[in-house]
Amino acid sequence: RYMILAVATVWSRTKKEVGLKHLDVGLGWITRMDLDTIAYLFDSNDKHIETVYFGIKESKNKSVRLSGDDLVGGGAGDNEVIYIDLDKLDSRVQKIALYANIFKFF
To answer: What percent of the chain has pLDDT over 70?
Structure first.
C-alpha cells in the first residue's frame, strides 16, 4: 500500500538556470519505514516519458539515477538520493517531478 508524502517539480527546461549542470535530491528519515523516492520525466505536453524508482534505478541514458532502495531508514544523512545530470537528459524531457511514498511501516 502506498501513501504519497510529497510531490515536487524540481526542474523544468523553461527555467533558465545559469551554470546548473547537476541536481542531487536526497531523502533522509529516522523512523522505521520503507520510503521510496521516485522521479517522473515528462515532455513539454506533460506526457510521461520515463520513471526512475526502486525497480528501475536509472533512466535509459543514465542521466537520472537512484542511489538505491533503503528499506528501513535511520542513520545519518540521506537514505536515498536521486542524481540528475541535466546535460545528459533526453532532449524530450522538459520537466522532472519527484515523489516520496511511504511503502511500509514497521
So the answer is: 82
Give the C-alpha separation, 45 to 23, whole Å. 23
Could you tell me what percent of the chain has a pLDDT over 90?
36
C-alpha cell at 97: 517531478
Nearest alpha carbon to residue 93 among 9, 13, 25, 17: 13
Q: Which position has the grid cell 527546461?
A: 13
Name the residue among 19, 68, 61, 21 with its Cα closest to residue 41. 61
Q: Which of 94, 86, 10, 98 is nearest to 49 (CA)?
A: 94
The rounded radius of gyration (Å) of the Cα atoms in the chain is: 14
- Whole-structure pTM over 0.90, yes or no? no
